[in-house]
């Protein structure tokens, strides 16, 4: 080992619980594993002596419980050792933190990318074979981003450990911009669009994700310019024109709607609502910035943005999800003059994590997709690390399962921000890059990670999907940058405009900000790189994380740069904005990019789309109603979509900023809530309510009603906690599939039409949104037969609102024995797409049954009920409140009981209903617009008076025991529930996850 090279291995001297956790992952394989020991390794390439390294090791180890070795192999009992580290160039957050710690400890400067690397060694003790050990290794690492080494004990001893192999990047790209000929036949032009620019060796660089119409428009532009495009120009146009960035389907002419469904249904709904609200309009910024903003009070603005990170999460769930959450954090920081992230939210749509059948991207075992369970665990961990390490609480989220998310999961991540209304005497939502301003890139450095991320996300996942599209966020670096900007630079007035480097990297952030000024000129060689050898086009479109772009006038530049240096944040001037209408990029003095800004932003040809409407009718199946529904209750409470996801909630810190009011786990029984409340301004009585609605199973039958139910649920959930319908805003996230298909476009149009109708009906404006149109998988099943798996058309409606006084807020759990139980709203025979229909189909026929009658939302009736509900909350008449959603009345009732550790007696004959003749339908219908509440006896008369114009009924009483007794519609008992057993069923499904 060379002078200055050190390998530090840190291990637990007492029991290491991590090994036990890893062992549990292999319980189902019955492998002969006795124990797993783990060592955390740090490979150092630092020119210091042994004494200094001893200090480093002592700083890295918790010496009460851990020991360490330096350049000596750790030797526990084991048969095989598996070392896993990152591939060269992949972001290694642990190594970055260790490097900074070493610099602080030893008062030295280390090379950013060549001095520190981390890895983990798993020591497998037991009678495992090499093949079994390889199988364990395949489950522990992802070859897209990680390297792995497997040694037997004899090999380990002979090799004196795992060795010292530094994963230093060594690349030699062409450092010039290549010209690309578009004067080729249509086949080659299409190949360039679908597979990328061809390199000298015949390989392709990755998808541009452009259609033939767009390619011909680009070809004509450069013909008029009298030259061929450079690769950096073509790549930049592809990023800017991608479905991910331009939302080409939402903007397209579709049937008779010339302006597109976004303009006609989403944007127009908000315009109409704001006009009708008049001076009560609380929207301050919608659809024009990185997030949407509403008024919190006289002094503050609340922002919100929900993004998706689906395609990267399918390849590397940890990297994809952590990049998603830190990316949407930057949307908050890039909103207006910069808002402070005060809360995160999440939503995960996964395949069945117990499904072990493999899928393959190609006819090759090496292209095996990660299992649903690995994707689930990786995604959850990524959002955990992204939020927890950034010091941002995560109080609200959900998880939903459907087998059709096996090819691509959906990963929704959102961030709520807080910003003063006025910053330096000006409106904080107004920003404008000015001609002459310096273009400053701040935060992380640029590498090859994330290249083609935007274009990759605009296509189906297949064998050609690029591994470079995966990036890994570094929340620690971003936290330093965020604090320096939001807590200091913003209020010092040191910049004119700010945005994040998300999809498309510098190519999009600089070009978008230049629209405020006119044009720009960038010197690309000034951009700091993670490692040498990147081609200019890669530097320009890389989506490497933790970066923001700012426009800073000369008079503030020195102060800004000194501030960033003081805070340990790298900032670099890379060019200037100007008042021309051109974008210029130079590399080593040579112009390699020269585009008209109007063409870059507005030159994309508009699509013309046609839809087909398909009426879906499912053969009716009549299932017998069991006389005793007790077992069905236990089964329904332990299904994937109704069971507790406490194992997720407990991983996410929701207390970190001290703003939690209504928490993710509610009541003594700690039941997952479907709504949360935070208090972003600690000395204010006001709060912010967060919730959502999502019903993918309804899409198969009626996408219009699916969207209506999603909006109604997002609104109702917020109201159930104390929110006001008059101070509630919505965000839409459409995740669709096969979106060139007229049938799928018909479903999309119907869902968007419902968004207009019900947002207007409730007076709840859309303030932000996002769409992801190609969530499909093209590949092979376990027998290598071709398959295409499309997600169910999925619409997430998120709600955010301001609560005047958090003392109004109420949780779902029953709180007092002898309180009266009420159902508000009428139950109908609406089980189409319900969890109960799926359950009965699986139970009797082995596969889910859809049913037919999807819940129909009556917004006029519901609005009246919701306003009465708001008044009852303000008067303190409601002791507990839960919105009835997935699983119906039965599931909601049990969740309130489990939350309060209190029993109940209810009479189904008293439940307000229309057209319902069965106990099971009454219990599990998913009719919208309903609540279950508990009310003290002394408040009975006043409560009932408030709801006299709505449908409601007292149906039972809270009991001080641990049983639930349900009488059926004919008076006889139809279910007797043991709540202790119910709790085990509810919380037991995901034990060990």
Explain this structure.
Among the domains are: 5-158, 2-Layer Sandwich (Mth169, Chain: A), CATH 3.30.1280; 186-244, no CATH class; 811-993, Phosphoribosyl-aminoimidazole Synthetase, Chain A, domain 2, CATH 3.90.650. The radius of gyration is 29 Å and the shape is globular. Strands 17-19-16-20-18-21-22 form a 7-stranded mixed β-sheet, with helices on both faces. It has a 7-stranded mixed β-sheet with strand order 36-39-34-40-37-41-42, with helices on both faces. It has a 6-stranded antiparallel β-sheet with strand order 3-1-2-5-4-6. The protein starts with a strand and ends in a 5-residue tail after the last helix. The longest helix is centred in the C-terminal third of the chain and has 21 residues, at 742-762. A hairpin with a 4-residue loop joins strand 9 and strand 10. The chain is of the alpha+beta class. Helix 2 (50-60) packs across helix 3 (93-106), helix 21 runs parallel beside helix 31 (979-988) and helix 24 (703-720) runs parallel beside helix 25.
